[in-house]
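User: quick one - fold this with phosphoenolpyruvate bound?
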Amino acid sequence: MDNSRKKYIVANWKMNFTTGEASLYLNKLSNRIQPSRKVQIVLAPSTISLQPLSLQVNRRQFKLAAQNFYWREYGAYTGEVALSQIRGFVDYAIVGHSERRYVFNESEADIAQKVAAAVRSNITPILCIGETALERKDGETAAAICDQLASGLHEVSKEDIDKVIIAYEPVWAISSNKNAKPATPTDIIEAVKIIRKYIAKLYGKDAAEAISVLYGGSVNKDTSAAYLELDGIDGLLIGSASLIADQFCAIVEIAKGVNK
Ligand code: PEP
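Assistant: Sure. Structure tokens for the protein plus phosphoenolpyruvate:
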């Protein structure tokens, strides 16, 4: 597999840490993690912490990501935050996370608009896709993945597909789910093949080879090496383990050491 693609370690802090705690945690990570050209580390704090952390962060060391935003530019959308309001703070944005899809009923149409809005704003969308336990049980994994790719990338042109990152996150493997269990290497390799084949169908072989695909789902320091070594996997999206400095720093060091 091509090893010219960059590695990504993305921390999704979800709805954790006050602004003060987030600042202290960033300080702790900054003291322990050396910048690396091989691994792009991306931190996704709560929206409220983006502005202060953007002033604190060394962007050679870490980039920031939004966990969520609304795709319209401005207007009467109570409680929402537009990309135009956070554009200066973030380089990446998580879109279509399963908690947004299933807890907040985010629609495929909104996800497609968010991906397109991020691309327009020069913010790299990290489009999360992945089947539910029921879809897997019913043999619908491939269909679920391809449907989410088709709808999520609906507004993305061939010229812009290299501005998108895909995160494969089987919903049943995410630690916030009851009975979560980590995906096996075989599960992930099969899913990544499906993803690249479908990207090839939509955008051509070169785009399929070039696109970065991350894995997310209950990754910790003991399991990260095995996931990072998998063919076609370019990094990790990490939830709970990203909240613990020892865990997160160990995963980053492991990623720096992976040669493929
Ligand atoms: C996630 O929610 O994107 C995630 C991967 O979480 P966790 O690592 O806790 O399973």
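One thing worth noting: The mean pLDDT is 96.
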